């Protein structure tokens, strides 16, 4: 299969994999696949070749992840900022996308066999229409597979994603589905393009750069960040193991930090809800506004109603998104 | 001589984030780092730890900074001012134009959520529509770093390989340089990190 290399690990690789798997393993790994152009320069080939090799390396890395039991991978394939590159390079990358997505659609049997769910995340309307159509077909064809997940960020930046999420919540308020007070961190989480995935445990950036370049800024706030100097097309199984070892060394501290953050978030939400309830009862002129049973009941009622509103809104949002892909497919049919 | 050091670098960050991932922060060492940043000519400095310890003990940090300023810059005092953004204390003396902010996780995602709530409130009152919101509008609604540009550089201290919630929105292009610890940190270690930063090549997506 072109997107996931066939093949098993060598004996040595399998030996190391077994050692690593004795410790905690990331469930979701994100990659900034940087260094294709520098690799091309180094090998005296065209940039396009560098990108093509980069894709091959992606296929190989996905195979390694599956062999290691890592079920979800997110990659930064094309940033909105990359549109600033020369027309020649951008066209080349779009052609590569056309080629790879078309190939993917020809390999549906394999995708089904491996249960690969492909998602493409980004501001897709910015792409050429035919590329959007291919993407829609790939996404719809694999949407019910659930053995492993590949999220491709294409025409993506994190700030656009976050702004989009806020816009969707504002849309929800406009539609009368949400109240402004329903807006929370957890609701924003559910409005991101990545809402069907857990946050990445590990983010790897190759080629030696030590910045995030507008990739998954929200989702990686408590992830293990590993910066490796190897150029992406030269990435090896050992580089991947090294990154996972770093993840394992950080595991305890990150779990602790994440837990205390969530605890604080829950506490603040509880405080806000209690304040709201107290004020509401005061407003209604209840002499017994201090009555804890009344407080508890009202709190439960408000929380339940908010949950209902949120479910309704999220369903509408899901519908809107599915609609977008379906409409693209009927166009090309 | 610190100013000369700063000028000798190919590029100097405009805003440096000092992020501590160690559990026990040291006020004296953090104060040194802040004072060095300002001495070298960095205009904006932010201090962060994920437990919000520095923020809660703000005045203790300020006292330590003023003390260090006296000790380290001593005779040259007249050239440097520290302005503490949002603080009650105003640093002494004239001239320097450096500003400090002490941040915690509530300045990160929580600030984005607050901005989102405010916008949604305007939408509910029909003063805005959802299509009005884009990246720039949201950026302008954030308040945790009012007046500060995005950090060019984060100096991360401690063994944890994560930003632990430091200004997720603002660090989209920030170089992240890790140092083993802020405890007993030397000026040389600090400066060599700045040197490392000066060598980074930014392509801006092109």
Automatic annotation (TrEMBL), chain A:
It is found in: Endoplasmic reticulum membrane. It is an enzyme of class 2 (transferase). It holds the Pfam family Prenyltransf. Its cofactor is Mg(2+). One of its GO terms (cellular component) is dehydrodolichyl diphosphate synthase complex. GO terms for molecular function: ditrans,polycis-polyprenyl diphosphate synthase [(2E,6E)-farnesyl diphosphate specific] activity. Forms an active dehydrodolichyl diphosphate synthase complex with NUS1. With NUS1, forms the dehydrodolichyl diphosphate synthase (DDS) complex, an essential component of the dolichol monophosphate (Dol-P) biosynthetic machinery. Adds multiple copies of isopentenyl pyrophosphate (IPP) to farnesyl pyrophosphate (FPP) to produce dehydrodolichyl diphosphate (Dedol-PP), a precursor of dolichol which is utilized as a sugar carrier in protein glycosylation in the endoplasmic reticulum (ER). This is Alkyl transferase. It comes from Piprites chloris. The lineage of its organism: Eukaryota, Metazoa, Chordata, Craniata, Vertebrata. The gene is Dhdds.
UniProtKB/TrEMBL annotation, chain B:
GO terms for biological process: angiogenesis; cell differentiation; lipid metabolic process; regulation of intracellular cholesterol transport. It is found in: Endoplasmic reticulum membrane. GO terms for cellular component: dehydrodolichyl diphosphate synthase complex; endoplasmic reticulum membrane. SUPFAM superfamilies: Undecaprenyl diphosphate synthase. Its cofactor is Mg(2+). Its EC number is 2.5.1.87. It is a multi-pass membrane protein. Its main location: endoplasmic reticulum. Pfam families: Prenyltransf. InterPro entries: Nus1/NgBR, UPP_synth-like, UPP_synth-like_sf. It catalyses: n isopentenyl diphosphate + (2E,6E)-farnesyl diphosphate = a di-trans,poly-cis-polyprenyl diphosphate + n diphosphate. Pathway: Lipid metabolism; Protein modification; protein glycosylation. It is an enzyme of class 2 (transferase). Keywords: Angiogenesis, Developmental protein, Differentiation, Endoplasmic reticulum, Glycoprotein, Lipid metabolism, Magnesium, Membrane, Receptor, Transferase, Transmembrane, Transmembrane helix. It comes from the Eukaryota. One of its GO terms (molecular function) is ditrans,polycis-polyprenyl diphosphate synthase [(2E,6E)-farnesyl diphosphate specific] activity. Coiled coil: none annotated. The active dehydrodolichyl diphosphate synthase complex is a heterotetramer composed of a dimer of heterodimer of DHDDS and NUS1. Interacts with NPC2. With DHDDS, forms the dehydrodolichyl diphosphate synthase (DDS) complex, an essential component of the dolichol monophosphate (Dol-P) biosynthetic machinery. Both subunits contribute to enzymatic activity, i.e. condensation of multiple copies of isopentenyl pyrophosphate (IPP) to farnesyl pyrophosphate (FPP) to produce dehydrodolichyl diphosphate (Dedol-PP), a precursor of dolichol phosphate which is utilized as a sugar carrier in protein glycosylation in the endoplasmic reticulum (ER). Synthesizes long-chain polyprenols, mostly of C95 and C100 chain length. Belongs to the UPP synthase family. This is Dehydrodolichyl diphosphate synthase complex subunit NUS1. The gene is Nus1.
